[in-house]
Amino acid sequence: MALFGRRSTQPTPLDGVDVVLADLDGVVYAGAGALPHAIDSLNLSREGRRLGYITNNASRTDVSVAEHLSELGLQTTASEVVTSPHAAVRLLVERIVPGSTVLVVGGEGLVNELEKSGFVVTRSAEDAPAAVVQGFAPEVGWAQLAEAAYALALPEEEGGIPWIATNTDWTIPQARGIAPGNGTLVSAVHTAVGRLAIVAGKPEVAIFNEAVARFGARHPVFLGDRLDTDILGANRAGIPSALVLTGIDRPKHVLAAPTGSQPTYILGDLRELHQPYPLAQVRDGVVTVRDAQVRIEGPDVRILAEGGNPIDLLRAGAKAIWDTGRAIYGFRVPERLYADPFHRP
Known about the structure:
The protein is α/β, with parallel strands linked by helices. It has helices spanning 2-8, 38-45, 62-72, 84-93, 108-116, 142-151, 182-193, 206-215, 227-236, 251-255, 310-324, and strands at residues 19-22, 29-30, 33-34, 50-55, 81-83, 101-105, 120-122, 131-134, 163-165, 171-174, 177-180, 198-199, 220-224, 241-244, 265-267, 281-283, 286-289, 292-297, 300-305.
């Protein structure tokens, strides 16, 4: 009984938070459908705080994203959605003359934001664009990638035009599984021209700064499913973060997370936003999270007690490994520690 008494006094990840900022793909939905427990959990999180969304997906407008979320049961306005095209436009206005022609590789969401900002959109390098902006859309194919390569043939330091990518996510969760993301398409152009794009979205801080300013956040928390974009970006922006295991990254990725990509919280699903979050206790080299215990013994990660909840074992293992400051490949890790009973698309 004493154990449960202590647990009830522990704060939840939402205690003291005034704005919840959530990624979409892999956190709220996979493809068109909502992920289990996401809608109810996010609606509950509105009590006493604001709820906003940050997405690297540039294929849709903020209006269409808000409509989709509302259809899923999250009553949302366009002003509550911050997209990577918003951040891309912010970078673009710093680099080219207002009203310039911009070659777009991407979909409606990107075109809409550029046109709202007064730029002229083209799909052809023959129109002498002042910049190339590239974002994800399912319809992007070889022809659009080739036009970008033609426009970017001259390096920027030799008088070439700027190239801005909305994001470089390698993958994107879909209802049928994991599909290639914008990073793979940006990489294709990079391979052709030998240039690197300027990145607007996560893990860069511009998109987080836009969200914090828009919502007037003083104590936000960010929910994401990717360590290399969501969590790294939130850490760079100084925002506490929660990795939810309903999207791309899995327990083995959590254990291997480098210092800059380690989340504040590790959640099996969004219901755990509203549950007391157990603090890891470290004593005599043993990391304890509730009734799960892990210890590092030289190159070996030892499970002393699995406990009653797989997420607590993962939390204990991650804490033990992270605290060493050593890379994961320097350890022998038991398979049980990175078992994956958590939902994913």
